[in-house]
Amino acid sequence: MNTNDNDVILNYFNSWKNKDSSRLSQLLDENITLTDWENKIQGSKNVMNFNNLFFENVDVIELEILDISIENKVAFAHLRIVIDGEELQVVDKIVLSETNQIINIHAFKC
């Protein structure tokens, strides 16, 4: 496991759960694609707008990494997420660019 890759992925999850838009935006490649069970968003500005709107509408985010595998710039993480008391489990596939920025996130609801 590449330590740099590991750091980027863990920083992403910590930034997201702490609603740290400034740090989060630094981790994203400008050409990022974010896909989840309801949305497909392209471009770092659009992804950040999406996240900022989400952050404004929730009070508390809890995130626990249940399992994670990171190899060759690809991470798979099984997550337990609690948003304002509502729990869900998600599997994220995150791909890093050659410059160690997040270029693709695909979230699957369990």
Helix content: 25-40%
CATH topology: Nuclear Transport Factor 2, Chain: A
Alpha plus pi helix count: 3
What would the principal axes of the Cα set say about the shape?
Answer: globular
Q: In CATH, what is the class? A: Alpha Beta
Q: List SSEs in N-to-C order.
A: HHEEHEEEE
Mean pLDDT: 96
Strand content: over 45%
Gyration radius, rounded: 13 Å
Count up the domains: 1
End-to-end distance: 26 Å
Strand pairing plus helix content: what structural class? alpha+beta
Uncertain spans: none
Secondary structure: number of strands: 6
Describe this structure in words.
This protein has about 110 residues and is an alpha+beta fold. The protein has a single domain, classed as Nuclear Transport Factor 2, Chain: A, CATH 3.10.450. The chain has three helices and six strands. It has helices at about 5-15, 20-25, 45-55, and strands at about 30-35, 40, 60-70, 75-85, 85-95, 100-110. Strands 2-1-6-5-4-3 form a six-stranded mixed sheet. The longest helix is centred in the N-terminal third of the chain and has 15 residues, at about 5-15. The radius of gyration is 13 Å and the shape is globular. The protein starts with a helix and ends with a strand.
Keywords:
110 residues, alpha+beta, Nuclear Transport Factor 2, Chain: A, six-stranded mixed beta sheet, 3 helices, 32% helix, globular
Short description:
This protein has helices at residues 3-17, 21-27, 44-56; strands at residues 28-35, 40-42, 61-71, 74-83, 86-96, 102-109.
